[in-house]
Structure formats: structure tokens, C-alpha cells
Amino acid sequence: MKPVWILLLAAVAAPLAAQQSPCPTDVFLDVGRFPGAGDDYPKPHIEVECEEDTLVVRSNGIPHYEFIQITPNPLLETDREYRFPLRPELAEMPTPIPLLGTVGVAINGIPFFGPNEGGVPYPGFGDPIYNSIMDACMGHTAREYHYHALVQACLAVDIKPGEPSPILAYGADGFAVYGPYSCADQDCATVVKAKSSWKKLRDPEIDAWDAFRYEPQQGPEYLDRCNGHDHGEGYHYHVTESWPYILGCFSGTPSPDAGREAAPPVSQGGPRRGPPPPDQPPSAEQVAAAAERLGIDTEALAEALRLTDGRIDPMNFAASARTLGIELGALRDALGLPARRRGPAGPPPARPPAGGEEPPCRFRCGTSDPNAVGCGLTPDYKVVCTRPCDNNKCG
Ligand SMILES: [Zn+2]
Ligand SMILES: [Zn+2]
């Protein structure tokens, strides 16, 4: 056992105040104390240490609670290393989060992604929670097990009613992601439930990024477009019940080393590829050349690509292609972009009721009875799947 692991074990028992220690090993879960994903899976593993100004998290990507398969992909052990700045700073401009792949890591060593799925439904980037392809902890398997939202009850072992929530994750820019409850001021005289400032415009089933718009709101509970704020205690993010659930963008500078796949054993024949890098906005020259190739107006193409409205959310070429009424491949070709592989197939999305504001239930539970709905964990971290879901709340 490595020395850092012993350090982590000792730190887990420390009170919350110890979170101010320079290296936040105590914030992470001692996953070895939990039952793990099940008898058929390796035990969860996490190591946390600090190297000068860098927080280093190594994990095998196995959840510390029972794995309930929702999407067709199996749960696989994936060794990853996450390196974040220990003292993050706000960047001059926010950076889009990747449309696919790691945005940060939760305190149990499981990565979290953005608020859209890749290729479910193909070729869109729908809201995976709205499309009911998440388990009770808002995780599921694709290339690896990952979250699209964070459930405090699945991660935090010590929640005190009326107090601000603990840290649940770190973004790739190094800023902490807290649970839903926040101090409303510097002295923390008032605690509020943090709220997203993204407004739902339409059904996010196919293209989540086009279905929500950021509209700044008044009030200490409302977060900025990245889902963060600073009331004088230092910038941080909060999870929210509604979109974008975790991060809407990076307020700091994302580390390029957040979630690199660790070198696999020699027997597996060399390194595997990580998630594809996010698409960068095309240059003005690329747009002009593509417009000529497609025989359309340059301005119309720029507008369809949402380059003209101050957007900072990830590029969504599928949505742009639909706006233009052309094939996604044709648009990517014209822009000189490499083709994207088809995303992982999921079960057909559950359609929301006509005219309904929210989906009838946040997730389905279990694969033996796909119609069973329910949520929550038992005290020993078993997923309970049989409780009825009423108006988005567990019965
Ligand atoms: Zn996903
Ligand atoms: Zn806060």
C-alpha cells in the first residue's frame, strides 16, 4: 500500500474543517470502506496526493455502490489519472466544457461529463437525465462509468441539514464542486439551495445545448453560466437540480491532464485512446471555405454554427447541420473536420408526456424490469428500484 493511501485513510475520519488543508485528501471518499459495485466487479480504488501545485487523483473508475446497468455497455475497470491545479484562478473568459468526455472527477474517483450525451439519440446530444438513461446516482456506462449529474446522497457521508453542502467533485480547472446548499453571504448567516440560471426553451431530448439558454438572475441562490459563484469565500461550483446539473462551462483554465487513461497492463497491448478531444469552433477562413463548398451564404453558415451570438457552449455540429437541412457528415466534410465515430447506442429514450414540463421520472432502475421506476439508496448503498415515482419525487 502506498503512503498516500494511509494518509487518505487517516484523513477521512477528520472533521470537515480539515478541508482547508493545502492538499484536500480528506475531501475524497475512502471507497474501500464501501461495498463496491458487486461481486462480479473489481473493488473500487482511489489514491489522492498533491505534487507541488497539482492535485493528483488516480482511480479505477469502479463505483463504491452497487452497479445497476442501465445502458448496454458493461462496467469496466478504467485506470485514470486526474491532475488539477491546487490553487485555481478565474480565467478572463469562460471555456466551453467538452461536448463529450471528462469535465472533472467526483470524490469517489468517478469522472463526470457535461449535461449532454453523445449520440443518444444519434446524432443528437440529448439531455441524458431527461432521456432516462441514468441510474439512481446519475451515472451510467458508455466508454466508462460516468456521471452527468451528482447526487449528494450517493457521495457525501456526512450531510448536516441546514448547513452548506460538502465538496462532491472537482472540475478540470481545479475549482471545487459543492453539493446543492450554499452560503448566501461571506459570513454564511444564511444557507440557500443553489439554482441554475439556465432557462429551458424547448425539449432537450435531442439537443440539450440548444434547449437551454443562460439568463442571469437576481438573488444569492442563482449561479453564473458555469454554475458557480463567489460570495467572498472563493469561487466554486454547485450542483443543481436542473440543467446543466454540474458545470455549464469552466470559469478557470481546464487542465489538459484531467482524466488521462493510465498506461494499461502490457498484456492489453499498449495504450488505448481516451475520449475524443472536444470540437473547437472553426476559424473564419474555415467557415468561408465551407460556405463556398456548400453553396450557401457565409453569414448564414456562421449563424447556424452559432458563432454570431456570443456562444461559449460546446460546438454542436449535429444541431447546426439540422438547422441547415444538410447531413452532419457533409457539414463536417465542408469544414475540413474529421468524422466522428458513432456514439454508444442507448435504449430508446422515454418520451416525456405531451406538454409536460419535466420528464415523468428521472431514471429507470434495473434491467430485469425496464418499467420499474424508483430511486434512492438503502443505508448499505444498495439501489432500491421498486418505489413508485410521483411527480419526479420518490414515493
Ligand atoms: Zn453519458
Ligand atoms: Zn456557494
- Distinct small-molecule ligands in the complex: zinc ion
Structural class comes to: alpha+beta
Main β-sheet, spatial strand arrangement: 6-5-9-10-16-15
Q: Kindly report the oligomeric state of this protein.
A: single chain
Number of separate helices:
7
Biggest pleated-sheet summary? 6 strands, mixed
Cα distance spanning the termini: 44 Å
Question: Shape, please?
Answer: globular
Percent of residues in helices: 10-25%
User: Can you count the beta strands?
Assistant: 20
The secondary-structure element order is HEEEEEEEEHEEEEEHEEEEEHHHHEE
Tell me the number of structural domains. Answer: 2
Write down the Rg: 21 Å
Low-confidence segments, ≥5 residues, pLDDT <50? Answer: 1-21, 264-275, 342-395
Mean pLDDT: 79
Structure description:
The chain is of the alpha+beta class. The chain is built from 7 helices and 20 strands. The protein has helices at residues 3-12, 152-155, 208-211, 284-294, 298-304, 317-324, 328-335, and strands at residues 46-51, 54-59, 80-85, 90-95, 104-106, 111-112, 139-141, 145-147, 167-171, 176-178, 181-183, 191-193, 198-200, 212-214, 228-229, 236-238, 250-252, 258-261, 389-390, 393-394. The strands form 7 sheets. It has a 6-stranded mixed β-sheet, with no helix packed on it. Strand 15 and strand 16 form a beta hairpin. It binds zinc ion (ZN) (2 copies).
Notable features of this structure?
395 residues; alpha+beta; 2 domains; six-stranded mixed sheet; four-stranded antiparallel sheet; 7 helices; disordered N terminus; disordered C terminus
